[in-house]
Automatic annotation (TrEMBL):
GO terms for molecular function: ATP binding; CTP synthase activity; identical protein binding. Its EC number is 6.3.4.2. Residues 157-391 form the Glutamine amidotransferase domain. SUPFAM superfamilies: Class I glutamine amidotransferase-like, P-loop containing nucleoside triphosphate hydrolases. Residues 443-455 have a biased composition (Low complexity). The lineage of its organism: Eukaryota, Metazoa, Ecdysozoa, Arthropoda, Hexapoda. It catalyses: UTP + L-glutamine + ATP + H2O = CTP + L-glutamate + ADP + phosphate + 2 H(+). InterPro entries: Class_I_gatase-like (IPR029062), CTP_synthase (IPR004468), CTP_synthase_N (IPR017456), GATASE (IPR017926), GATase1_CTP_Synthase (IPR033828), P-loop_NTPase (IPR027417). Catalyzes the ATP-dependent amination of UTP to CTP with either L-glutamine or ammonia as the source of nitrogen. GO terms for biological process: 'de novo' CTP biosynthetic process; pyrimidine nucleobase biosynthetic process. This is CTP synthase. Residues 432-455 are annotated as: Disordered. Keywords: ATP-binding, Glutamine amidotransferase, Ligase, Nucleotide-binding, Pyrimidine biosynthesis.
Amino acid sequence: MAFVEAFRQFQFRVKRENFCVAHVSLVPQPKTTGEHKTKPTQTSVRELRGLGLSPDIIVCRSEKPIGQSVKEKISNFCHVAPEQIISIPDLKSVYQVPVFMENHGMAEYLSKRLQLGITPLPPIRKYMRPWIDLGDRMTNLKSEITIGIVGKYTRLEDSYTSITKALKHAGNKVGYHVNLMFIEASNLEAVMLRDDPVAYHNAWHNLCICDGVIVPGGFGKRGVEGKIMACQWCRINLKPFLGICLGFQTAVIEYARNVLNLEGAHSTEVCEDTPHPVVIDMPEHNPGQMGGTMRLGKRTTIFKASDNNSRIKLLYGNKEQIDERHRHRYEVNPDYIKRFEEKGLHFVGVDVDQKRMEILELENHPYYVAVQYHPEYLSRPLNPSPPFLGLVLAAKDRLRVYFSRGCKLSPREPQSDYDSDDVGLEELTANKLNITNDHDDNSSAYSSSSFPETG
C-alpha cells in the first residue's frame, strides 16, 4: 500500500521524536465464549511490522472495555507496554471518543512520546470543553426535525454524505435530532402522475411533511423540473428552504417563470434555445471549450453593503466577505439581475468582480436561501456551516430567537474561544516539526477533484 510506504519513509525524515504510530485494531468478543480475542490484533501488528512500521500505541476497539489481562496478553505478543494499549469500547456518540481518550491519559503520553516540552501540561479540559459539550448534547437531543433532500441520486444515499453530515453538525449544535427524508426529484414532476401515480403521490406527501427542504447540486436534465417544483412549493408555502449549486439555479428559474412571468425561462445547460436564459455558461477559463471550464475550489464571496439585514450575512457573523468551495460551470445571467431584485429576490452575495451571483435570499419568507457554492464541504462538528444552521433553526421556528440573542443559542452562551487555542496548538506543532506549507494556493484545486460535476 502506497500510503504505508510513504509513512515508512517519512518516519526517517522527521525522526522518531516527531513520529508516532497509532494502530487501531478490532478485538472481537464472540457471544459463544464471552472472551475477547486478541489474535486479529497480533496478526495485524505482525503484518504492519513487515511493512516497516511499528506501533507506538495500540487502540483496541471492542463492544465492551477489555480487561487488564487482555492488555497484558496483547503487550506480550505485540511488544508494546500495557500503558500504550488503549481500550475504546462502543460509546453513545463518536464525538465522545476524544474525551474518552483524554480521560485515559492520551495527552500525557503524546506529550512525552513526541517530546513536546510542555511542562507542566496545560489543562487539557480547556481544549476539550467543546467536545464535552458536543457529546452531552448528542446524547440529550431535545427534539426532532425532518429535512427533505430533493435530489437526483437518492437511490444511493452516500451521494449526499457531505450534506447529511452538515445537517447533523447543525442539528447537534442546537440540540435537535435531524431525520432525513430523501425525495427523488423526478417523482415530483407532473408526468409521473400518469406514469407512476403511487411514486408521485408518495414524493409529494414526503415533501409536505418535512420541516425544511434542501435542493442539492447535480448535473444533467433529469429531475430538474422536479427540483423547480420543489422550489416553488417551498416559496409559496413559506417552507424553510436551502438551495445548493444546481438548487440555487433552479430557484432562480422557478422565480423567473412564476414571479417575473418569463415563460420558458431555463438554464442553457438544459435548454439551449430557451427564450429567457436566466442561467448561462460563464466559464472562468477556455471560453468556448467544455474541458477545464469549471469554477473549482475556494473562492471569495462579498456581501453587498446594501443588504445589512440579510439573514445569511448574520449567520456568517456579519462578515463582509467569506471563502467557500465551488464546483460549477453555470451562473445566473447578469442581464436579469435587476428584474429579479425589483421583484423581491435579492442577490446578497457576489464574487469579487461583482459579476457572478453567489447567494440569493427572498424577502418576506422565514428562510429562503440559495447559494452557488457548496457550504457542506467546510462544515465541521464544532463549527457547522451557517446556511445549514440557519435552515435547522428556521425548521424549528427558532431563527428569530437566535438573531434576537445576538446569534447565540442562549443568553448565557459564552463567546467561543477554542478557535484561537487550536491555532496555538497548530503553531506549536508546525514550529516543532519545522513545517512550511508551500501549497496553500493550490490546496482547494485538487481537493474537489473527486466530486461529480454539478450545475
